[in-house]
Design goal:
disordered N terminus; 21 strands; about 375 residues; disordered C terminus; single chain
Length: about 375
């Protein structure tokens, strides 16, 4: 079963650490999952340090969980090894106690990069409907105070809860429509943004606002925030050192911003992200050798789906071939293919050789 989500946080010209100014839409943390768990953001925190890279771990206890080897598959744009695959059992990504959101924030009018305001965003792909089991995209909770954060599927609805260290200062952001359209086997972007200055919070699916239910008291710069006692987890919730609600599926390009992005900003990011589609280039409701021949003719000169462009970047290249390969034999309307791990080169060449042999038999002229 494979899930994918887009969660989001915003930045509006704030100052962090050594006098560094951030422009709008600058992620303070970004995991692209391009074959590794590197944090692509270059923003320095208040101590002048870069945001933490991730460490793939397997286990139910954050103190004893063992380091593992992550599995990567095709990304939302069809790029090889462009998304991380999580098994829903004990896989999670440790982004240390410096992992955002939730870093200690100053009191007063300062609203980031703590839990007062923010956006978290990622792409998800879920190959089966949501069920009653909770699945957390990202989460952490202290045991000595109430500082906490979680985002994902509660078992009944999409929700996010940023909670400051004191008992009363929190948001409960929930989708009252109980929307599960994101659990249909296609790529989707999910985003949550919240603004403690104006006491507003929203959830977004594919750039459009969901019907949100907001409860709890507001979060302001005056609310006490404390450092994380345990590592922030991606793909699960670290609840006082105990991992729970493991994500079952694939994640791509997870971003954290320090303040709430607007609906137009979130929509623009959604619209500007290339997304792989079913490579049915001849529009006959199946992916077969005829589509391969279209790709072959379009290499280096095609720019459209009908010419072999499967990821919408107006180029026909090897990535489009991988997308065709992953969907070979599929039927149905054009949509995101069922993406598994990228095969080893030798396996890919054997598959391609088999297809080419089949094409030779299929298209051999009669004598």
């Amino acid at each position: 079963m494979i899930w994918r989500f887009y969660v989001c946080c915003t930045v509006c010209s704030i100052w962090i650490g050594g006098g560094q100014s951030l422009l709008a839409q600058t992620p303070i943390s970004q995991y692209e999952f391009n074959s590794d768990l590197t944090n692509a953001s270059s923003v320095l925190d208040k101590n002048g340090a870069l945001p933490p890279d991730g460490l793939f771990r397997e286990g139910l206890d954050s103190e004893t969980a063992l380091e593992g080897t992550p599995l990567f598959g095709l990304g939302v744009d069809g790029s090889p090894n462009g998304a991380i695959l999580l098994d829903g059992h004990n896989d999670w990504i440790d982004v240390t106690t410096a992992g955002l959101p939730g870093e200690s924030a100053k009191s007063g009018t300062f609203t980031g990069p703590g839990l007062v305001s923010g956006t978290v965003m990622t792409w998800i792909k879920v190959d089966s409907p949501a069920n009653a089991q909770s699945r957390w995209l990202m989460g952490n909770a202290n045991s000595g105070d109430f500082q906490a954060w979680r985002f994902g599927w509660s078992g009944a609805q999409l929700e996010a809860v940023p909670h400051a260290a004191d008992i009363s200062s929190q948001y409960n952001i929930a989708d009252a429509t109980h929307n599960i359209a994101w659990a249909d086997g296609a790529w989707h972007q999910l985003a949550v943004s919240w603004d403690g200055v104006i006491n507003e919070a929203k959830l977004y699916l594919d750039g459009e606002q969901l019907g949100d239910l907001i409860s709890g008291s507001s979060l302001t710069g005056a609310n006490t925030q404390t450092p994380w006692e345990f590592p922030m987890a991606i793909g699960a919730r670290n609840n006082g050192g105990n991992l729970e609600g493991f994500w079952d599926g694939a994640l791509d390009d997870l971003r954290v911003y320090a303040e709430a992005l607007s609906e137009s900003q979130i929509s623009t990011i959604f619209e500007n992200t290339p997304r792989a589609v079913l490579p049915d280039f001849d529009a006959d409701n199946d992916v077969d050798g005829a589509d391969f021949l279209i790709w072959q003719r379009g290499v280096d000169n095609g720019t459209t789906l009908a010419e072999g462009d499967a990821n919408g970047n107006e180029q026909v290249d090897g990535i489009d071939l991988l997308i065709w390969q992953s969907a070979f034999g599929s039927f149905g309307e054009a949509s995101t293919p069922q993406i598994a791990a990228v095969p080893e080169p030798a396996t890919a060449m054997l598959l391609l050789a088999g297809v080419l042999a089949g094409l030779a038999r299929t298209f051999r002229p009669s004598l």
